[in-house]
Amino acid sequence: MAEEKYTMPLLGEEAPAFDAVTTQGNISFPSDYKGKWVILFSHPADFTPVCTTEFMTFGSMMDEFKALNTELIGLSVDSLYSHIAWLRRIQELEWNGKKNINVTFPLIEDIRMDVARKYGMIQPGASNTQAVRAVFIIDPESKIRTILYYPLSTGRNFDEIKRIVQALQKADAENCATPADWRPGDDVIVPTAGSCGTSKERMENQSDEQYCLDWFLCFRREKK
Fold this sequence. Notes:
The chain is α+β, with helices and mostly antiparallel strands. It is built from six helices and twelve strands. The termini are far apart.
């Protein structure tokens, strides 16, 4: 019997297409989400502790992501009935200041693991029967822009996921890059010397709007 191969899409590639049954009805991806950013993420199983805290967190942040033109789509290899029962139970729980969380973003039923395999969410070194904690950030052109993987034991950092979306949107809109630990409102990095004058010009032509630490590291001040 041939060994089964597991693949995953890469940064910059088209997000693999699929049709799926979800807690919010059927979806066709990515066609139903053209023009929007999407966070597609998987969790190992319903009715598990780490996953429950994650869904309570994502559920509490839905409006924050919608304000960024970003939709959420969850996935596990559990059944639709399991998903619905679990999400109802989540509404009854209170944790870390979060309560009455009504998860209204779609949660994919993926019993056959069809979608999980397309996105490399099944990793035999972790589990043959559960999806790992994967996160794919997909842009309005259906291109994969960020891939994050977490072990089964570690809950995700949702502030970081939101920060990545904000940083990608900033870079796309203003042709810039974001430095380490960047947050909205922080200064951004401007293009390198090859597209913005010589190294000498960059060092000499500093202004209230732009400053350089060296020829290869220049920033644009953000208006406060």
